[in-house]
Amino acid sequence: MNTFTLEARKCRRRKIWVMPLLILGFQLLWTLWTTGRMDGKDLRDGWAFVIIGTQMLNCLTMPVLAAVTASRVWDMEHKGQTLKLLKTLTPSSGIFHGKLLYGYLWMFLCGFLQTLVIAAAGKFQGFYGPVPGRQLAYALLVCSGVNLIIYLIYQILSMMYANQLISLTAGLLGAFIGFLSNLFPKSLGLLIPWGYYSRLSSVAVSYDLEAVTAHYAFIPIPWKDWIPAVILLVILYPAGRILLRKKEV
Amino acid sequence: MPYMIKTNGLCKKYGTVMTVKDLDLAVPEGSVYGFLGPNGAGKSTTLKLILGLAIPTRGTITVFGKEVNSRSRLSILKNIGSLIESPSYYGHLTGEENLRLIQTIRQVPDANVKEVLQTVRLTQQKDKKVSHYSLGMKQRLGLASALLSHPRLLILDEPTNGLDPAGIQEMRELILSLPSRYQMTVVVSSHLLTEIDQLASTVGIIHKGELVFQNSLESLHARSSRRLLLGTLDNSRAANILRTNGIAFQESEDRIALPYAEDEEVASYVQLLTAEHVGIYRIEEDCKSLEDIFLELTGKAVSL
Question: Cβ contact (<8 Å) for B105 and A14?
């Protein structure tokens, strides 16, 4: 906890909250825009539609948020050459955890508020049926879990390279590939962590090409699809810690 | 003699280049140890190795009598303050906020922050963002961070780098006051001989990663042997006369160099040569400067 509060103190005046707020604002506008014109069948599919829509949007926005946040959190250490001081005061693992926890918290908060936005929009627009608490909780789990993997990727990049353009460019690339991966076959999509936001969804979309319409429906939670995500997490977390410990400053 | 730092066969290799070679450093307790060497000699690398910021390729490091390894490193570092290369700071925070962060990590009393701010004369500027500080102020803040926990050992790497003459003077006075004020041992590295001459009690000279001298400053000064240089109108005849009379000498460019002698002895040399009609037009005393000794130790081609 000490390393977390230290990180929070270090990030004073860094305006880290700006990017999550922008992402959240963007998501709110998108939700209001897409659900505002719904009627009949659309309202019946409303919950499933807005959940998968937000998850697809996350493929685009969350990698950018992760890259920007990690960059803001690490840039000050590179600029002020503070790692050589910190490494004489505290274990590398403490630095790694403090930064991971602090940066990830913003991502988690964004995901949590996003879930509240979905629930509020559904109620406000009059989606059929009660608020699907279980589905929303799972959507939050997907967002938070994938956020952790994605944030770890950008934390490692921002930590290793003083030039934050590398991390930011990787963020944009990740967003692009992640969004595009929605069009890939499932087996290929599972190789692209940036696309997990929608790939691990409990909503299935089927297209009626003749009627040019899409149907949204809840499906059983695809727990097996989590395997590559868990493997990635198990690799990235210790790798990041070791890299920081071995980093000579 | 108790030593604060001892290294044994310390080596560090970057790629194919051996930056530090078999270094046997010995820093006596209570001393101001001047670590001198030209740019790129391996000073910063050595200090980073001691602090565990770089991993040695070979050799051992002992600080406070304990061997530094991954397990003991942080407990040893609790008693070390350091300022390596340039100062470390968070530019978007004020000077005091920077120190408060280190205070929290070091778990030292509140009063220490106030005290070190006074010591480095930054009390007036403590509420200013560090990005608005001058380089001298940043250096002093770096020193304040290093002093915050009243360490037993202070390691300063080129602390006067980039400072103007007034800043250098101020920093020098500050460093000199530390051993008596806080009873600490100070290791200060520099590529400036004059700086080390004014600060250190013990000197280590490193060149191309190797320690070429390590002893007290007095013993370094003792190497600056005095001699007499004689300018005559016929050096070869003068040399013959001196040789015949069993007087030791060396021919040095257009002069004859004699060992330093008292006035009466010098008068007898003059008398001897003038009696043989060798015209003497100059007698001068020559003393090797510290620069000469340094260049002798490190090789003349080195730029200081």
Answer: no
Nearest by CB: B53 against A12, A80, A84: A84
CB contact under 8 A, A90 and B74: yes
Domain range for residue A146? 2-246
C-alpha span between A88 and B25 (Å, rounded): 21
* Single pTM value for the model: 0.85
Over residues A174-186, the pLDDT tens digits come to 999 999 998 898 8
Predicted confidence (pLDDT) per residue in B245-293, tens digit: 999 898 877 889 888 888 899 999 999 999 999 999 999 888 777 777 8
B204 interfacial to chain A (CB closer than 8 Å): no
Domains, chain B, in order of start with CATH, read: 3-222 (3.40.50.300), 226-287 (3.30.70)
A174, HSE (Cβ side, Cα atoms, 13 Å): 28
CB A206 within 8 A of CB A214: yes
Of B60, B298, B84, B38, whose CA–CA distance to B187 is shortest? B84
Between CA A2 and CA B105 the distance in angstroms is 9
Structure tokens at A195: 């696309």
Instruction: Retrieve residue A180's tokens.
Output: 């595009």
In chain A, the number of structural domains is 1
Across the interface, whether the CB atoms of B91 and A79 are under 8 A apart is answered yes
Tell me which residue of B94, B187, B185, B87 sits closest to B140, measured CA to CA.
B87
